[in-house]
Design brief:
This protein has eleven helices and 14 strands. By secondary structure, it is an alpha/beta fold. It has a domain of 238 residues: Aspartate Aminotransferase, domain 2, CATH 3.40.640.10. The strands form three sheets. Strands 4-10-9-8-7-5-6 form a seven-stranded mixed β-sheet, with helices on both faces. A four-stranded mixed β-sheet has the order 1-2-3-13. The mean pLDDT is 97. Bound molecules: pyridoxal-5'-phosphate (PLP). Pyridoxal-5'-phosphate (PLP) binds next to helix 4.
């Protein structure tokens, strides 16, 4: 059986990994500044993570949500302590798209409205509702068209935001903490505050998609926390499980749960919880938030000295390096000549870097050196 060929892939079979490095089948080492789409938060194969998962597997790996699972409560407790949303609730699922799907559904249940406001160049996933609020028609099949009303407005445009909300028919505004796939554009703190107050005024919920920008990647637990704003619903995935498929939505106490409102077979299983708990323990024990800020400052300062870089976007260790021209050749050169994995974005001039949050200045210096050689 052939694989259904939907991915343009690098012809490099990665067979092992440790910390910030991955290794191919010939044991060639690569510096991983991409973490498989921003998933690797605490580094590959962290010993504590491996131990937690092994121990859990030896006890029980799976049972469904038909029984109480204290490990889910343990995870919720740790998460609330670190993310600062202590009076909110947690619903666990399996992927970023599914988290957004459930967040939209909750907003519609709560407000009894159908319209969603989203942003130009946004990406929220490939399932039906998540795709409908993603600004990329080329990903849609006919079945996805006209699913429910969505208005795409420009990021940081207050006038467009106000116009879209003033009829009071909007269930939610959904915004990425930092746009990932789109190309690392961020809502300003001032704009996020405005979105939050307009949502309150016009009876819409504020959903922040922190699937990529969450879990300390931006230098705060959630990227929107740089603005001081509180969201009604936050969606998380990627870094949450460091590669174990797990996602969640964090829900304001005003939204009351009812049996059957949301559901999943696999979501919140024992292994997913063990992986997520290990990630949070490592984030805390190794003070990774401090590390993100330290390494980020170093990288930003170094990048600022390279003349051909026109813009440095993003926060923390979710950075976009914008050139005047496309980054295609740069990305290939970094990979094949310097053995460094990086990412791209919809914006063809932006190189996206999402290294493990454990990366040290010493380790990232190799990237800075390579960039300086290539872009000199
Ligand atoms: C901001 C954001 N939301 C949602 C998703 C979808 O997540 P998943 O691929 O886990 O469904 C992504 C994936 O890249 C993302 O970056």
């Amino acid at each position: 059986m052939n694989l259904f060929n939907v991915y343009p892939r690098f012809d490099i079979p990665i067979t092992a990994a440790k910390g910030v490095y991955v290794y191919d089948d010939k044991n060639q080492k690569y510096l991983d500044l991409y973490g498989g789409h921003g998933v690797i938060s605490i580094g590959h194969n962290h010993p504590h993570y491996v131990k937690r998962l092994k121990q859990q597997m030896e006890k029980i790996s799976f049972y469904s949500n038909s029984v109480v699972m204290p490990i889910q409560e343990e995870l919720a407790g740790l998460l609330s302590k670190q993310c600062g949303y202590s009076d909110y609730s947690l619903f666990l699922c399996n992927s970023g798209a599914e988290a957004n799907e459930n967040a939209l559904k909750l907003a519609s249940f709560y407000t009894n409205k159908r319209k969603i406001v989203s942003f130009k160049n946004s990406f929220h996933g490939r399932t039906a509702a998540a795709l409908n609020i993603t600004d990329n028609l080329s990903l849609s099949a006919p079945i996805n068209h006209n699913n429910f009303p969505v208005e795409f407005i420009e990021l940081n445009n207050k006038v467009q935001l106000l116009n879209s909300l003033k009829n009071e028919d909007v269930a939610a505004v959904i915004i990425e903490g930092i746009q990932g796939v789109g190309g690392l554009d961020s809502p300003t703190n001032d704009f996020l505050k405005y979105v939050s107050s307009c949502c309150d005024q016009y009876g819409a919920l504020l959903i922040v998609d922190e699937v990529q920008s969450g879990y300390c990647r931006s230098g705060k637990f959630f990227a929107h926390q740089h603005s001081g704003v509180k969201a009604d619903i936050i969606t998380v995935a990627k870094g949450m499980g460091n590669g174990f498929p797990v996602a969640g939505i964090i829900i304001h106490p005003k939204i009351e749960a009812k049996y059957g409102m949301l559901g999943t077979t696999f979501g919140g299983n024992y292994l997913a919880c063990a992986a997520s708990i290990a990630v949070l323990e490592i984030i805390e024990n190794e003070a990774l938030l401090d590390n993100v800020r330290l390494v980020s400052d170093y990288v930003k300062n170094e990048l600022a000295t390279i003349k051909s870089i026109s813009k440095i976007k993003g926060e923390g260790l979710m950075l976009g390096i914008e050139l005047e021209a496309t980054i295609k050749d740069l990305q290939k050169e970094l990979l094949y000549n310097y053995k460094i994995f990086t990412g791209s974005a919809n914006n063809p001039n932006v190189l996206r870097i999402l290294p493990p949050l454990t990366i040290t200045i010493k380790e990232i210096q190799m990237f800075i050196k390579a960039l300086k050689m290539i872009l000199k």
